[in-house]
Amino acid sequence: MLQNNNTSVLVGTDACAPALHVMEELLKVVQQLSATHDLQAVMDIVRHSVRELTGSDGATFVLRDGEFCYYAEEDAITPLWKGLRFPMEICISGWVMRNRQPTIIEDIYHDDRIPIDVYRKTFVRSLAMVPIKTNDPIGAIGCYWSKVCQPTAEQVQVLHVLADTAAIAMDNIGYQESIASQARQLEEAIDGTLLTVAKMVELKDPYTSGHQRRVGILSYDMACELGWDKKRCEMLRRAAIVHDIGKIGIPGELLTKPSKLTPQEFGLIQTHAAMSYDILKDVNFLMPIAKIILQHHERLNGSGYPHGLTGEQILPEAKIIAVADVFEAMTSHRPYRPAPGMDAALEELLRNKGVLYDSVVVDALVRLVKEKNYCLPE
Ligand SMILES: [Fe+2]
């Protein structure tokens, strides 16, 4: 066994077949994998083995999650993409899974399939990637080198054996259940973070405490009423939970001012939409949450802000949040005024239906309230 900087290296002398000691190590790995009962253990064994048996500088274990590649585990000299999801069409593991074949890339800077912006921040220069289950890929295993190099046939062979063994081990443990539970945990963590952020905004403006959360619930329910698929409804709810996040940059005394605002003060408050966008624009939410929030004060006829967008220029998600925002605000008490109430809120929305607010969205809310006795939770 040769020692590399950070990992031990097992390499064969024959370029066409794994050497005996590599085979022995592989057999041990196969035995370990057959005795594992959970996905995390499979991924841990594989990522360690990939580095040890190929002598590479990094290894990733990628799971297919619908149309996304989930970089579930890694073992590398410096961090790569653990915990991130990328659309299948933009990452190399997606290419490997869609084309059901391995790939070797000697120099990532000379391959069109590589999203260079994502790789530039990493040590990676060369890579090899194989699908897990070639006929119907459920994931991929990759190994990476920090220098330009051509992986040997033996190294690729080792990757194939590990991928095949991982596939069997994953079948044995019912990996789909594990992926679902990991995804649930991740979503719960995202929700927790967003709610915390929402509360931080509300600390500045306690009068509107719970406003964003309730707009989130109402937006979700309206999207369901419109027949949107559950995932899209869920992402909309998340966007709505932080739709006023930019208010964190507005002076508290302005947000809570009980008397009428001057035009200058109102102008300052209006900047919260663009500030929300700035805060969230670089966060990868798999949905244009920042753009949706930027548009939540736009109105169909172009009278909204910040850009005076009209009709189809406004995202459907932003149109729903706009209606939910008005409805929630008008049905909630404020210390300086009683709630105008549900009837007044519906009247305002119906009067401006098709002018300020999207007709289909307003109709969905009216159906919920009038026909289904919808009530917003406290
Ligand atoms: Fe707002």
From TrEMBL:
SUPFAM superfamilies per UniProt: GAF domain-like (SSF55781), HD-domain/PDEase-like (SSF109604)
Descriptive protein name: GAF domain-containing protein
Pfam families (alphabetical): GAF_2, HD_5
CDD domains membership: HDc
Origin: domain of life: Bacteria
InterPro entries assigned to the protein according to its UniProt record, in alphabetical order: GAF, GAF-like_dom_sf, HD/PDEase_dom, HD_GYP_dom
Domain HD-GYP: 186-378
Source organism (scientific name): Propionispora vibrioides
